[in-house]
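Posting for a labmate who doesn't have an account.
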Amino acid sequence: QEQLVESGGGLVQPGGSLRLSCAASGFTASDNLMLWFRQVQGKEREPVAGLDRMNSVLGYKGFIDGRFTISRDNAKNTVYLQMTNLKPEDTAVYFCSANIRGIRIWGKGTLVTVSS
């Protein structure tokens, strides 16, 4: 059964950094389009970054300022989202997603809170 489990969220001060992890099981992450989304409370879920099978990075409007970087460790079957210079407006639940044979699956998300 295909599954995604996010981790690495937590409380961080403005200007700080976090690295989120998305551990995939039941399928090979590098064979599929992997995406990070986030959902701010009261708003729609929005894409943050993607990594396709060719290891090309997909950037999304609002997230191409270099603060968010997606990467993958094939040996660990894990995708990461490195976030730097975090701002209070980055507070959200961050979700990992995979497109597998045209079907999108989701993890349960990890909460990131940016606050002093």
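Reply:
Got it, the structure tokens are right above this. Residues 98 and 105 are 5 Å apart (CA to CA).
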